[in-house]
Amino acid sequence: MTLSRTLATAARVLRQLRHDPRSIALMVLVPCVMLLLLRYVFDASPRTFDSIGASLLGIFPLITMFLVTSIATLRERTSGTLERLLALPLGKGDLIAGYALAFGALAVVQSALATGLALWALGLDVTGSPWLLLLVALLDALLGTALGLFVSAFAASEFQAVQFMPAVIFPQLLLCGLFTARARMQPVLEALSDVLPMSYAVDGMNEVLRHPEVTGAFVRDTSVVAGSALLVLVLGAATLRRRTV
Amino acid sequence: MMNSKAPAPPVAGEATGSPAVRARGLTVTRGPRTVLRGLDFSVPAGRVTGLLGPSGCGKSTLMRALVGTQAKVSGTLDVLGHPAGSAALRSRIGYVTQAPSVYSDLTVRQNLEYFAAVLEPGRSAAGRRRAQVTRAIEDVDLGSHADSLAGHLSGGQRGRVSLAVALLGSPELLVLDEPTVGLDPVLRRELWHLFRGLATERGATVLISSHVMDEAERCDRLLLLREGHLLAEDTPEALREQTGSTTVEEAFLHLVDRAATH
User: Fold this and answer.
1) pLDDT band at residue B12 under the 50/70/90 scheme
2) A90 touches chain B (CB under 8 A)
3) If DSSP codes are grouped into helix, strand and coil, which group holds residue B40?
4) Helices (DSSP H) in A19-79: which residue ranges?
5) Quick check: B93 contacting A, CB < 8 Å?
6) Domain regions of chain A by residue span
7) Where exactly are the transmembrane stretches of this chain (chain A) (predicted)?
8) Which of A141, A190, B22, B138 could anchor a disulfide with A61, C-beta 3.0 to 4.6 Å?
9) How far is CA B49 from CA B21, B22, B171, B176, in A?
10) What is the chain B residue with the closest CA to A81?
């Protein structure tokens, strides 16, 4: 792995996006619109908005980056550019880190806007520091990137890649504690939710929501999310083969 | 047809010096199918070698084996003195796949800049990279489209962008998979002029696949492939003489018939 090749790859991914302003606008604005909508859906119960809003600040970057990365990587595979890159002196790590860096940067913009809007315009009441919210959002984005990269290896078409979204993301969404506290689920489901990374993303957000300082649970939650992202990235790297049939 | 054969030193039966590619018993399987069956051949250095045969005969598979992207390769395959697929070869081979492999949402120049940065990274090489990108754009005659999105170009133009990428870094071996398919005659002539120049002026070894037999006459040497077998390996002149044919196409058909009766 070389830093300059990683940076060149990240710059290339961002350049590609720059030619597609509509995608950027959708990625950045849709979470804001959803939060706005949510704020007035829970107009009569601001406490519910606080809890769900904070959780969603962690979930949006995960879903967006999952979708964007799985399609982008699939395009790289089907357009032949992946084969070309792997025939060149580019490390697999350079490619993956390049993608993670580029989408991570985008996630920072997306999360900063969504967090800013939620806190200062929509009155989301958070006890802890907004920077911690942003940190969790960024880690969630990395997790989304990692998952997207990984599943793209199993999708033969963009059609299939999109179907991986409900398959990989929806179960996590149902079990992450967004709809009901994880402790109140049927024990088997609770145990299942304990091994899904999105649960920790939501738990982490809720720690920031309720505590003014960095708690031990927050450190554990963010470490689990970061660790899962790293693990899945390594698995994703293993799916990039220089020699294919 | 003035440019059909630019001046090049005639190649005697066996090229001098060590070949750029040497294959012994090269076999490739894809699932239950054996795509290449024990091929023995060599590609002389600094020459234009044509890899000819009908669609589906294994040309692309052979090329992928050379550049190290093909799985399940057995036998011996040495490229520029290293086993095919060695990491040391990655910056020394330029490879153009049959379908143009460039980013359609980047401009021609941006595509080239990225691949140049992969080949030769670092800020200290920025000047060299710029010169290489400019030269590659000129080589394929896309100067007037340098700032167009690759996705907005015609199929033939996109193919030339893909070719320009392979020319970056002055590779010693160029592996070009059907680079002239679907192009108009004028453009084809220009590209063959370029390929010839790459060999004679820049000393590169050029391996070009084609299923269009009239392009064979422009090569120094030919590998005729059919159904995973090597039918012949010689100069176009020698092939015509051996078979008493007037064109390489006729010679190919003659060889196919002869193989069938054996």
Assistant:
1) very low
2) yes
3) strand
4) 21-41, 46-78
5) yes
6) 3-238
7) 24-42, 54-74, 95-119, 131-154, 161-181, 222-240
8) A141
9) 11, 13, 16, 10
10) B101
